[in-house]
Amino acid sequence: MSASESLPRRAPTRTTAAAAARRETLTPERWIQAATDVLVDRGIDNVRVDVLANELSVTRGSFYWHFRDREDLLRQVLQAWRDRATEQLTARLRQANRDARAQLRDVLSLPFRGRAAARAARIELALRAWARHDAMAREAVDQADASRIDYICGLLETIGFDGAEARQRAFLAYGYVVAESLLSTLGSAPERAARRRLVEALLQQALRAPQ
Amino acid sequence: MSASESLPRRAPTRTTAAAAARRETLTPERWIQAATDVLVDRGIDNVRVDVLANELSVTRGSFYWHFRDREDLLRQVLQAWRDRATEQLTARLRQANRDARAQLRDVLSLPFRGRAAARAARIELALRAWARHDAMAREAVDQADASRIDYICGLLETIGFDGAEARQRAFLAYGYVVAESLLSTLGSAPERAARRRLVEALLQQALRAPQ
User: Distance from first CA to last CA of chain A, Å, rounded?
Assistant: First the structure.
């Protein structure tokens, strides 16, 4: 089945008052959100101006009020994701608690935040799949990963680990969050809570000398 | 660009002797491999009989010598992946070392095995993206995850952790391997080696009582 066959057919709405009103109120953010939805549900190849215009019941032409071209839209999809899922997220975590150990606990609990976490995990998986064969997406994902690890590394330095070890532990903490999001069907809720507590404790426990 | 536009156009090869010979020697495994390649490079929507026949320079009809339909092919793609990336892998790990600690070290080093590891990571990411909206793929991925964690859990029980804690630690070990495969651009080779040694040590270190 080709991409175009899979789209629901809709009656033309160009000439109705409702569609005209909708077109006028369509913000760039609405296009970015629609593009993100299509990316998650059907992959990057389906994120095309014609598909999105159809989804939003507007003409293709209205797209160009906000974006130069598809590339411009994709760049803004990545930028919006970065703002929301990295910058705003770490700012919120910093504000919620001044204590580094409490912030680390909040980081480790991110995969457990219900539907918002599941949605974020779906978006990230779609972005990582895209990044495997696209340099612009690769750069955005790498920057987000590095920025989050920097944040966690800072917490672990505050807790008392030196630079190199703090960075190694930050990778473990971040890797756990990524894996927990990806493997969310593994284990019951109590099992998941128990392994989160174990990670939290192990991450803050100094290494004993080898026996 | 639609899926069909992105395919390279090839001259018809039906009538050439070379194509006839190729068609006769095409095994089911070759179709499964081609399907896996297309899945990884272009996503599940492009894994279609016409696309694969084009890739392999054979007629669509020859597909039906080996498979009932597309669904049958997809089931065998998943089965082949499961055999190779879970059953054969754990059997090899068990045979390479009798010692549980050495086997655990081998598990943690899987993401570092060069091109084979990178290829395996690309396949798994594509399968996980597919599994987000397909029940058959979801079941295959979940079973593989559970089976690998069972294997690691057995190692940690042998090392001396009790059932529940062994399972929690097995998740951490597996989560680390998944994350290291997914985040392979993060950190230099020495940094990656250092964090692997840290995980290996932390995983085998008993928890201290909370302070």
Answer: 60
Each residue's pLDDT tens digit in chain B (211 positions)?
344 434 444 444 445 565 555 555 689 999 999 999 999 988 888 999 999 999 999 988 889 999 999 999 999 999 999 999 999 999 999 999 889 999 999 999 999 988 888 899 999 989 998 898 899 999 999 999 999 999 999 999 999 999 999 999 999 999 999 999 988 788 899 999 999 999 999 999 999 875 4
> Least CA distance to B138: which residue of chain A?
A185
Residue of A nearest to B206 (CA): A202
For chain A, give percent helix, strand, coil, nearest 5.
Answer: 75, 0, 25
Judge whether A138 and B182 are in contact, CB under 8 Å: no
CB-CB contact of B179 with A174 (8 Å): yes
Distance between B12 CA and the closest CA of chain A, angstroms? 22
Q: Judge: A133–B41 Cβ closer than 8 Å, yes or no.
A: yes
Beta-carbon separation of B176 and A172 below 8 A: yes
Indicate the residue type of B116.
A
Say whether A26 sits in a helix, a strand or coil. Answer: coil
